[in-house]
Specification:
about 400 residues; mainly alpha; two-stranded antiparallel ribbon; 2 strands; about 70% helix; globular
């Protein structure tokens, strides 16, 4: 029974968390370095909006798709661009599948990109906008003037140094700051403000675990060999459990802070790493929980996943319906079940197209009818792609 609990707890960090940490670090650096480039293209060349939206959406995590919502509510981009982004995104569950099955992940993300691209251009061509379906649509005229005034102070395409000068000097507690998308944000709690000791410890454990997890994952050495080299200490289990527990501590310590920065380009690498640690922790915890639950179910009942109502045509429908739930937690759980063998690929792909990750949450807050229409639109290609893959297989 100890093996049924300890090993999956360690596997969550060693098989997923370590590789997620690597990917998060890379994308955090890319967003810190080149965060405003794509946004400039969106403003200056609106016709390529769905293409750029699909590119942002298909990038791992939710940050790319999250950039689109405030731009749409400002009228900077077309509705098809938003639809392309949320259709192409797999949310934070993309980190999970990239870490566990990178080749499958590339194929799934290629399908997501093509589906998002086609859907976005169709929406713009057919003019399927929220206004056409009776949505409240854009902001009131007074609010539009507010946004225009804010944008004048910090435009989307402004360099990081210019945006920084537009923010008020001195302490930011209780004051609104501006994101790169020109939207007001709460200064004190907008993003993690620095790399604290828990976040630093998580990155250190991830670095050490990487040295152990990668050789084992690529079958260069065995776990027993690593244990022998470590003087009899099972470094795999030790680092794995320590990493998962530290991820839990990081998540609890930052539970009141948003996991994503809604499109902001971090001003310092330490801020990007702090946000990355929180994102890594938020992924490691549900993945490890799924691993533990799945291990216990297998040990106690012999249930291997083949009995799940996620097979065949019913599985595609179930995957699409799960994708209707905003946020990433349930989607991460389903992806973890796929990795464990409990969900077939057509169900996973149907869910990946249907889900909007965290990108839909800002739209829910700003325009509920537009969010509902977006969810309805992404359901159609999810069913088409899911059934097409099911019949092809």
């Amino acid at each position: 029974m100890i093996e049924a609990l300890v090993r999956p707890l360690a596997d969550g960090f060693m098989q997923v968390g370590v590789f997620v940490g690597l990917l998060v670090a890379i994308f955090a650096w890319l967003r810190w370095r080149f965060g405003t480039g794509l946004l400039n293209a969106l403003e200056n060349r609106r016709r390529i909006g769905p293409l750029v939206g699909a590119v942002l959406g298909v990038s791992p995590g939710c940050a790319g798709a999250l950039m689109l919502t405030p731009l749409y509510t400002r009228g900077t981009i077309s509705y098809g661009t938003v639809v392309a982004g949320v259709t192409a995104t797999m949310g934070d569950s993309s980190w999970v599948i990239f870490a566990a099955k990178p080749l499958v992940a590339l194929k799934v993300h290629l399908v997501l990109f093509i589906t998002g691209l086609v859907t976005g251009y169709l929406v713009d061509a057919l003019r399927l906008t929220p206004e056409r379906f009776g949505s409240a649509g854009r902001k009131s005229a007074a609010h539009q003037r507010q946004l225009a005034a804010a944008a004048a102070g910090a435009s989307v395409g402004a360099p990081r140094s210019a945006a920084a000068t537009a923010e008020p000097a001195g302490p930011t507690s209780g004051k609104a700051s501006l994101s790169t998308a020109g939207e007001p944000r709460e200064g004190a709690d907008a993003v993690p403000t620095g790399l604290g000791p828990l976040s630093l410890l998580l990155w250190l454990l991830a670095g050490l675990a990487f040295l152990v997890a990668v050789p084992i994952a690529f079958q260069l050495v065995s776990e027993s060999t690593v244990t022998r080299l470590a003087g009899g200490v099972n470094a795999y289990l030790l680092l794995g459990v320590a990493g998962t527990l530290t991820a839990g501590a990081v998540f609890v310590a930052n539970r009141r802070k948003p996991q994503h920065d809604d499109g902001v380009s971090p001003q310092r690498p330490s801020i990007a790493l702090a946000g990355g640690a929180h994102e890594m922790a938020a992924i490691v915890l549900p993945v490890s929980a799924i691993y533990v639950v799945w291990s216990l179910v297998q040990h106690l009942t012999g249930f291997d996943g083949s009995q799940l109502p996620m097979q065949g045509w019913l599985g595609v429908i179930v995957g699409v319906c799960i994708g209707l739930i905003p946020g990433c937690a349930v989607q991460i759980a389903l992806t973890a079940l796929y990795i464990a063998g409990g969900v077939p690929l057509p169900t996973l792909v149907a869910n990946a197209v249907s889900q909007d990750g965290d990108a839909l949450l800002p739209l829910v807050a700003r325009d509920g009818r537009a969010a509902a229409l977006t969810t309805a639109i992404t359901t159609l290609p999810a069913l088409v792609v899911g059934f097409a893959l099911l019949f092809a297989m």
